């Protein structure tokens, strides 16, 4: 069951400048940063709020580490902006299988590693009314770990 907005993924050209915009404008602080080489991103997670299911909701700021990555290609075509939304679930395996059975393309056979040790998969935007949609199961300690 999908129980929260886990994050909104925002593509940017310069992660440090974008982090500074969110800090100066809204007061959001960086909760976590990492490089995910498989996905080709350098990212910063800004925690917005905790949620009643024990998880949390974040903004995920994404800078590409290479031009041929998903975010690099998307930025070249569209410029900066909202790249994807991510729903949180305790069971990314079961929920992605159930969604695949409904005829929506799930991009990975098995979930891959996401931010803060989470397990993630993606649904094709063309099957989701133009929205690249991610499903996330957080690592058990993700709401408190840096
Ligand atoms: C592409 N399209 C999108 C889109 N990206 N539509 C909405 N939102 C997006 N973000 C559209 C694009 O305009 C094309 O439509 C069509 O899909 C095919 O796009 P393409 O440019 O030819 O690109 P593809 O097909 O090579 O790749 C698109 C997909 C790719 C979605 C398959 O981006 C992908 O595998 N994404 C999943 C991985 C990902 O995004 N990783 C970065 C975040 P027209 O022009 O033909 O109509 S990593 C992350 O979130 C992490 C680590 C985390 O949360 O922990
Ligand atoms: Co994401």
Can you describe this structure?
The chain contains 3 helices and 8 strands, in the order βαβββαβαβββ. An 8-stranded mixed sheet has the order 2-3-4-1-5-8-7-6. The model has no long low-confidence stretch (mean pLDDT 96). A hairpin with a 5-residue loop joins β3 (41-50) and β4 (56-64). With 146 residues, the protein is α+β, with helices and mostly antiparallel strands. The chain is 21% helix and 39% strand. It has a single domain (2-137), classed as 2,3-Dihydroxybiphenyl 1,2-Dioxygenase, domain 1. The chain starts with a strand and ends in a 9-residue tail after the last strand. The protein binds ligand V0V and cobalt (II) ion. This is Methylmalonyl-CoA epimerase. It comes from Streptomyces nigrescens.
Short structural description:
Belongs to the methylmalonyl-CoA epimerase family. The chain has 146 residues and is an alpha+beta fold.
Keywords, please?
single chain; alpha+beta; 2,3-Dihydroxybiphenyl 1,2-Dioxygenase, domain 1; 8-stranded mixed beta sheet; globular; binds ligand V0V; binds cobalt (II) ion
């Amino acid at each position: 069951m999908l129980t929260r907005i886990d994050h909104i993924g925002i593509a940017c050209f310069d992660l440090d400048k974008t982090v500074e915009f969110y800090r100066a404008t809204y007061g959001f602080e960086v909760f976590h940063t990492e490089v995910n080489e498989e996905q080709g991103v350098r990212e910063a997670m800004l925690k917005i709020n905790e949620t009643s299911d024990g998880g949390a909701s974040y903004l995920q700021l994404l800078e590409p580490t290479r031009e041929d990555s998903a975010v690099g290609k998307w930025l070249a075509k569209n410029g900066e902006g909202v790249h994807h939304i991510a729903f949180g679930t305790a069971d990314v395996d079961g929920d992605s299988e159930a969604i695949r059975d409904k005829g929506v393309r799930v991009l990975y056979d098995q979930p891959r590693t996401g931010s803060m040790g989470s397990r993630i998969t993606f649904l094709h935007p063309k099957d989701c009314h133009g929205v690249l949609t991610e499903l996330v199961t957080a690592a058990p300690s993700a709401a408190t770990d840096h």
